[in-house]
Amino acid sequence: MADPDHYEPSHSAPQSAAPTAQAAQAAPTTHHQTASNPTTPATSTTQEATESAIITPSPAFTNDIPTRTDVAIIGSGPGGYSCALRAAQLGLHVTLIERDEHAGGTCLNRGCIPTKALLDAAHAAWEARRGERLGFGTRAQQPDRERLLDFQHNAVRTMVDGLESLIKARRIAFVHGQSAIDTATTAASATEPAAGDAQPMRTVTIDSADGTRHRISARHVVIATGATPRPLAEAPFGGRVLDSDAALELPVIPRSVIVIGSGAVGLEFASFWAAMGSSVTVLVRHGRPLSDWPRRVGASLKRGMTAHGVTFMDYTAVESCTTDDGTTTVTVSTRKGTAALCADYCLVAIGRTPSTDAPWIEQAGVERDSRGFIVTDPWGRTTSSDMASGMATGIWAVGDVTAGRQLAHRAFAQGRVVAETMAGLSPAPVRDELVPRVVFSLPEAASVGLDADQAKSGAFGTFSDVRETAIPMDGNARTAIAGDTGVIDIVTGVDGSAPDSPRLVLGVHMAGPHVSEFIGEAQQIVRNRIHLTEAALAIHAHPTFSEALGEALLKADGSPLHTM
Ligand SMILES: Cc1cc2nc3c(=O)[nH]c(=O)nc-3n(C[C@H](O)[C@H](O)[C@H](O)COP(=O)(O)OP(=O)(O)OC[C@H]3O[C@@H](n4cnc5c(N)ncnc54)[C@H](O)[C@@H]3O)c2cc1C
Ligand SMILES: NC(=O)c1ccc[n+]([C@@H]2O[C@H](COP(=O)([O-])OP(=O)(O)OC[C@H]3O[C@@H](n4cnc5c(N)ncnc54)[C@H](O)[C@@H]3O)[C@@H](O)[C@H]2O)c1
C-alpha cells in the first residue's frame, strides 16, 4: 500500500496490473474475468500478455498514465463516462479513472443492465406460461439459475465491451485505480491558477493495484463516484439479508423472499422472482408501492403485480430481521399488530447512499447536504466555503452523488452538461422533474413531469386551473388481449403568466404493460410544452399499447373517443 504522505512525482511508466488481494477487494465484480476483449492495448509486454489470462482489470485500461490532463473524472459510471465521452468529443484531454475491474459503474455492472436481463427472462417465463394456456404445450421448465446467470453476465459483458471500445476510440486515458483529490498539492496551487485558467490546477492521485501512486494535474476534476445500497438499521447486509448486488449474484432461485422497500429495486426483483416461481412478499411502508408517485399509479401497479403473483403487505414497519442457517425471519408491526414472516431470503431495497464519505472529499472543501449529497449549481459546479469568493473550485459533480433522481439517464444528461460547460458552451441544465422515471416491473410504471400537487405548489412555475384526468388502460385493445391492467394519469394546466394561452400537458404518469416504451413521447410533450390540443391530435397506430396515451390526451382535451 502506498504511503499517502509520500510524494512521488507522476510519471508515465507502464502501469503494472499484477493481481493483489487489495485489487480483488477493490473490484467486487468478477463476471468479466475470462472475457476476451478486442481493445487490448497493442503495447502490452509479453509478461503482461501472459498475466492477462489471470489479471482482473480490463485490458482496456491505459498503460501510459498522463501527468497532466484537462479533465480528470473519478468514476466511470453513467455520470463519469458520459462526461468523458462528450468532453473528448469537444477536444478536451480526458482522464477517466475507475477502481472496478471494468468501466460502466453500477448501471452496467450491477444495476440497469443485469436487472433488465433478468426481467427479460421474467417476460419469457410469463409468455411461456401464457403460451401453455393458449395450447402451445410449451410447459416452462424449472428455471436454471446457472444458465440465467450466464445470460445476465453476457448481457453485461456485451454492454461493457461496447463502452470500453468507445472510450478507447475517443482517445480517453482510462486509468485503473482508487482515486482522490490531493488536497495538500492542490492547496499550494490554489491561489495561483495556471496562466489563462479561471480556476486552480488540481492534483488527483491514483493508487494502482500494485501499490504505485500516480499523480495527475488537472484543470477540472469531476466527482462521479456514485452510490451504494443503504442498509436497514435493524438488518445489516450479509448472509440471507441481501442488497441488490448480492441478489444479482444469488446462485439459486429462492423458494420464498421478503422484499423490504417498494421502490424501483424492490419491485423489479419482486417481478423477477415471482416470474421464476418464488413466493414473494413486498413490505410496503404506506398503502401502496411507489408512494412518492401519483396515487393512482401506485394503486394500479399493485393490482397488476398482484395478478403477476406478488403479495403486498401494506403499512408495515420492520422491527427486526434475524437469520439462521436456512431461513430469515422479519418481524413487522402492521395496523393489525405484530407479525413474524419467514422466508429463504430477504432483500433490503430502501434507497442508495451517495459515495461521498471519503475523507478527501471533505478535505477538498466540497460542500455536501445533510444527507451527504454534493451541492452543485445547475451546471454541476461544486461549491466550497474555502475558496476565495467568485473563484471556481474546479471541481464538478454528476450522477448519484448529487441530490435528485438517481437514474442513469439523468447522470448521462448531467455528464453532458458538465462537459459542455467546461468546454465553454452554454448548455441548458438538467431539470429533475423532466427526467422520466420507469420501473421495469411486470407490469411497468413510468412517469414524467409534475403531479397535480407539484403543479399547484408554485415551485415549478405558476399554473392555473390544474386538472388531473385518468383513464384505465384495461380498455386498450392490446392491454385487454394481454389480460393486463393499467392506468394513465395526465396533469394539465394553464401557464399563469399567459392565462389566455392554450392548456399545457404538465405531467404524464402511467402503470401498465410496456409503458416504458412510450414515456419518451410523453417526455417530448411535457418538455417542449406542446399544447394539449396539439398533443391530442397525434395519431397512434391501432392497435398499440401507446394508443392508451392518445386516448388519455383526448380525454384530457374533452373529446374522448373510446372512453366516457
Ligand atoms: C439494481 C439497480 C438497478 C438499476 N436500474 C436502473 C435502470 O433500469 N435505469 C436507470 O436509469 N437507473 C437504474 N439504476 C440506477 C443507476 O444504476 C444509477 O443511477 C447510475 O449508475 C448512477 O451513475 P453514476 O455514474 O452516478 O454512479 P455509478 O454508476 O455508481 O458509478 C460510480 C463509479 O465510480 C467508481 N468509484 C467510486 N469511487 C471511486 C474512486 N475513489 N476512485 C475510482 N473510482 C471510483 C465506482 O467503482 C463506480 O464504477 C439502477 C440501480 C440499481 C442498484
Ligand atoms: N428502473 C429504474 O430506473 C431503476 C431500477 C432500480 C433502481 N433505480 C434507482 O436506484 C435507486 C435506489 O432504488 P431503491 O428502490 O433502493 O430506492 P427508492 O428510493 O426508489 O425506494 C425505496 C423504498 O424503500 C422504502 N423505505 C425507505 N426507508 C425504509 C425503511 N426504513 N423501512 C422500510 N421501507 C423503507 C421507501 O418508502 C421506498 O418505497 C433509486 O433512485 C431508483 O430510482 C432505478
UniProtKB/TrEMBL annotation:
Q: How is the cofactor bound?
A: Binds 1 FAD per subunit.
Q: Give the residue ranges for region: Disordered.
A: 1-62
* Residue pairs linked by disulfide bridges in the UniProt entry: 107-112
Give the protein's cofactors: FAD
Protein's recorded name: Dihydrolipoamide dehydrogenase
Per UniProt, FAD binds at: 116, 400
Q: Which intervals carry biased composition (Low complexity)?
A: 10-53
Which segments constitute the Pyridine nucleotide-disulphide oxidoreductase dimerisation domain? Answer: 435-552
The GO annotation for biological process reads: 2-oxoglutarate metabolic process
